[in-house]
């Protein structure tokens, strides 16, 4: 019986090798039907492999031989358990995975809170950094001379976002497209910070997790993460101003649009 844990993730990519020693290396897949049929199987294999990977990431064991046998038995209509039994077993596993996921999130959150507190304490010692009453830290990189945004305004910005370890999770400059959005729709750190900026300014924000996504993981942003942004305020508009033909956009990586709850 082959069981896969965190230490043997690489083997999962060879999932197809377990299918009864079957190889398609010499098979003819030249026709449309054959190519499409093979693609169905390949797509299924990638999906199953991704499910196994995500579960082993949480420390769960998976018997890949039995996964493959279950797929084949189901295709033949010879599955060992009833649909009701299968649902029961899958629900049991889902509960175990949820518990493991919650424990892992709690561990990561505690680590990020500890490291984040130290980062904020160190960052605010800089003469260039201002700390607001809420705890938002900002640094003026370039001070513009345009209008400032009100909380109800629509703004257009360029930005890049980093975790405190330097990991970049979003960058509008790389997309070569600024984002336009209602200011009240984004995380609290942005709502406060952008109202401090005249048009044409570039500020650096260091945003405590409670002004960002709190204890929730959002995309690749781990729970309780401090977020660091360089934000260029390109334009400020009143609601409805010059809105013909211009749509509001989300922020890159699903990011900064509202607070996760």
From TrEMBL:
Family affiliation: Belongs to the FKBP-type PPIase family.
Gene Ontology annotations of biological process type: protein folding
Gene Ontology molecular functions: peptidyl-prolyl cis-trans isomerase activity
Domain PPIase FKBP-type per the UniProt entry, residue ranges: 152-237
Protein name: Peptidyl-prolyl cis-trans isomerase
Enzyme class: isomerase
The species this protein was found in: Shewanella canadensis
Domain of life: Bacteria
Gene3D superfamilies: 3.10.50.40, Peptidyl-prolyl cis-trans isomerase, FKBP-type, N-terminal domain
Key words of the record: Isomerase, Rotamase, Signal
Lineage summary: Bacteria, Pseudomonadati, Pseudomonadota, Gammaproteobacteria, Alteromonadales
EC number assigned by the record: 5.2.1.8
Catalysis performed (reactions): [protein]-peptidylproline (omega=180) = [protein]-peptidylproline (omega=0)
Xref: InterPro entries: PPIase_dom_sf, PPIase_FKBP_dom, PPIase_FKBP_N, PPIase_FKBP_N_sf
Signal sequence, start to end: 1-25
Pfam families: FKBP_C, FKBP_N
